[in-house]
Fold this sequence. Notes:
489 residues, alpha/beta, Rossmann fold, 7-stranded mixed β-sheet, 15 helices, binds NADP nicotinamide-adenine-dinucleotide phosphate
Amino acid sequence: MSATQTAPAKLSSGMRTPGDHVIVLFGATGDLARRKLLPGLYHLDRAGLLPVGYRIVGTSRRPLSDEVFRAHARAAVVEFGRGELDPGAWDAFAAGLSYASSDAADASALADAVDRAKEQIGGSPRLLHYLSVPPVAFAGIAEALGASGLTGDGRVILEKPFGTDLASARALNAIVHGVFDESQIFRIDHFLGKETVQNILALRFSNGMFEPVWNREHIEHIDHVQIDVPETLSIGSRAGFYEGTGAFRDMIVTHLLQVVGFVAMEPPTSTAPQELVDRKIDVSRALRPLDPTRVVRGQYDGYLDEEGVAADSQTETFVALEALIDNDRWRGVPFYLRTGKQLAQGRRVITIAFKEPEIQLFPLADGTNRGPNELVFEVAEPGGISANFLAKVPGATLELGPARMEFRYDDSFCAANQLEAYERLIHDALLGDRTLFTRADGIERLWEVATPLLERPPAVERYAPGSWGPDSLNQLIAPRRWHLPEDGR
Length: 489
Ligand SMILES: NC(=O)c1ccc[n+]([C@@H]2O[C@H](COP(=O)([O-])OP(=O)(O)OC[C@H]3O[C@@H](n4cnc5c(N)ncnc54)[C@H](OP(=O)(O)O)[C@@H]3O)[C@@H](O)[C@H]2O)c1
């Protein structure tokens, strides 16, 4: 193999190969397809994780020839793929790509292209539709699929966000359920990535050292939990999308509350997808409806000047809130969630903060009594886990100072076997594994929990780009402190 060839290791050991498929990529000319989905499909092919027999049919409303679509896909793989493109591997992959335009009113050309792809594969390949289109287009496309006979036992991946409130999520579910059974629907939650979810569960349930921390009998040791996802990016050119969505709908409902489900779930009886999804939704059911007085909404200075943003926009680019779970395990243990644009760092951090011992025998070296007492999951992949605790400062006196034990996945395991989040999700959907996808009742429950905030949102507060958010962020969590920034302690 030459130095320019960058074939990933074949990952088939222990991994199942999906049955034959026609993958229909809606929104094939869009941003997500270009940056993630087309390069991801190419990488899956090179890793030997696509079915033995498969074809990919790209579609959107604009007309394109197969050749132009293949050139578009090639450019996407060159720009956004991992490593250099291998010409031989590309030719083999491109031979399976075709394109047909479609819209909500007429999917007949697409149906013909799918038929041709099925004939080329032979046998009875299953369909996987990936709806990488603006959410307003979901319903029309689902109906067009039903009318064109493109459903059958096929599966459909729906991008986020799924609805904008309880009523719209219910309406969308009703339309999609008119065409697909719930077991065929894969609502995306790519945020954590399977690796991280499984790492949290592995740490919790496979280690005698950590399991008691989450154990019902000992939960009084946990003081609170933080799920913190600051972003440095601005909204860029996505004002059209962001103005009608905001940080709460874009991130909290779609991602951070899903993370709460994995952190707080009861021990599953197995790692079967259905079991994990059930336990995660149990947590959503126990979530108390959000209290708008325990929510901080922020907007970065300069947001109103972004192109496409209304001069009087009240859309939040930042949100921090307290979530409470009304079950025996978590009653009285608040979860603090924060996310926002144009913040000081881009991080994905889950912090389990422990209570301090009631009796403080030892003073801290800096004269205070409080110290770090946390288990911290860095969930941006490859990620790591650290324990922050107090240790004796060397010397003649018995004083304590902050100490840290750290585990980094990069240092300990071979990261080359990792798949990117979208690659895993496509592979999971081909296999029918729904662990990382949300279910209708789960997403509706989260919108129900969100309703008080959507109906009575507090006013947005300004914050400086590069900060950690509006000042009231700290009042929300007081007397506790945010784990980030680390140098703030
Ligand atoms: N981009 C990201 O980083 C990102 C991240 C997370 C989630 N998402 C989600 O992924 C989806 C796609 O986002 P995107 O950024 O790729 O959007 P985009 O760049 O605007 O592309 C949208 C794609 O959908 C097609 N399309 C638009 N309206 C359509 C309609 N009514 N019927 C059929 N096709 C239609 C467009 O082609 P035509 O105009 O030719 O039809 C285009 O191919 C959205 O749900 C978004 O929320 C995107």
